[in-house]
Amino acid sequence: MPIIIGMVVAAVVGYLAIALFKWLLKTDKMIVFIIYTAVVGIAVIVISIMEMQSGVNLFTGAPIT
C-alpha cells in the first residue's frame, strides 16, 4: 500500500511541477526559476565544501567515509 501512495503522490507532484514550469515559460517569469536554481545550487556547493572540510555530515553528525 505505501508504494501505491508514493506513486500517486509522485505523479501529482510531477504534474504540478510541469504545470508550474509551463506557466513560468508562458508568462515570461523564468527569472524566478533562474534565481531559485542559483540559490539552491550555491547552497549545495557551500554545504558540500563545509562537509569536505570538517569530514562530518552537517545534518546527521555522522563521519563522511
Model description:
The chain has two helices and no strands. It has helices at 2-26, 30-54.
Could you provide a short overview of the structure?
The chain contains two helices and no strands. It is an all-alpha fold and 65 residues long.
Radius of gyration: 18 Å
Query: Kindly state the mean pLDDT as a whole number?
Result: 94
* Residues in helix, %: over 70%
Order of helices and strands: HH
Shape descriptor: flat
Q: What is the beta-strand fraction?
A: under 5%
Helix-strand blueprint:
Layout: H1 2-26, H2 30-54
Provide tags for this entry.
0% strand, 2 helices, 77% helix, 65 residues, mainly alpha
